[in-house]
Amino acid sequence: MSTDEDNTTLYNPDRRGFLKCMTWAGSAMVWTVSGGIPRSHLIGQAEAAETGLTFAQVSDSHLGFNRPVNPDVTGTFQEALGQATSTADKPAFLIHTGDITHLSTAEQFDTAAQLLGATKLQVYTVPGEHDILEDDRKSYLNHYGKGTQGDGWYSFNTQGVHFIGLVNVVNLQGNGLGDLGQAQLEWLEKDVKGLPASTPIVVFAHVPLWVVYQDWGWGTKDGGQALTYLKRFGSVTVLNGHIHQVMQKVEGHVAFHTARSTAFPQGVPGVAKGPGPASVPPGELKNFLGTARISLVSTSSPLAIVDTPLVG
Amino acid sequence: MRSLIKPGLLFACLFIPAVAHSNIAAQLKIDNFKFGPDKLVVAQGTEVTWTNQDDIPHSVVLTALGVRSKVLDTDKAFTYQFEKAGTFSYVCGLHPFMHGQVVVK
Questions:
Q1: Is residue A300 over pLDDT 90?
Q2: C-alpha A257: how far from chain center
Q3: Most CB atoms within 10 A, among A41, B1, B5, B93?
């Protein structure tokens, strides 16, 4: 269990200079990696409304989790979905980057289907490790596997953007690092081969494709191989979950971004004693949960991402 | 007295082996993404029970023995009886950076 000492960093996220809260603008919050690394843009609602494509990312809803840090994950997920879909520039679709359920039970998948269905939006998912705990991944694939390949990977095009959903939680490697595997890598190479380099690419997967913190398995062992197939593209945005906090970095034309959970925050790597749920001061939980909205902007920069806490 | 001893011996023959077996038990806890103790030394025949006291589900995978527990939610337990001597390493299937070892003598 997390101790108070574990969690003090959450009240003061820039304690180690790892992440710095740059600004608050209405309910949108921008985080950036300190130390001169380029950051994603904050865009206002008006600007977002003028763009051709906006979609929302939710992650790590962990339906079925009921520990004291958040005994109502269904409620906070519902609130996050409401927040993501109720604004004037309603997103074109939702992406859920995994850990939809906490224990892969039929009841938890049913709850997810009801809540996601209520948004009336197309939902694209990839599994987290919590979604494939039972029955050899069948429950997840029965709900979300239609039209996918292998363990549930796929791609689609919309409004000139090529989206790729990858699965990196089936065969966790030493230290728990994610793994794409040879079959998926070969598929990815073929999938993008014929695309012009000017095509904006959005990749989404549960575990970060870049190594955030190896000691806790927060990275993907063969993520670098996947990125070699994408480096020729002018704009690549990689969206992940798993670590229940916002982290971003940009490498060349590739922007990496992890989303908050809608269920509970986790400790800051290198500071907290473990990667478990981190309790927060009473009444402040929703500052640590949230959603991300992503808009296509016509520049050579990566897509603009606005992370929004449930309150703020 | 003789008539009392015989039933006593019979009782011992019938029940002592079973009682001796189930009396050897050891407990391990899982908390904050750690097995505790991470190295446990037990005698052959010991039943080792892992109890998850963490806020997150975990599992126990004894790779060399081909043993894999179900996923253990908070307060759930898994028991395995070690029949053979040896050193058995294990990990959590969900978080393989969690390591432990049971030494059976």
A1: no
A2: 7
A3: B93
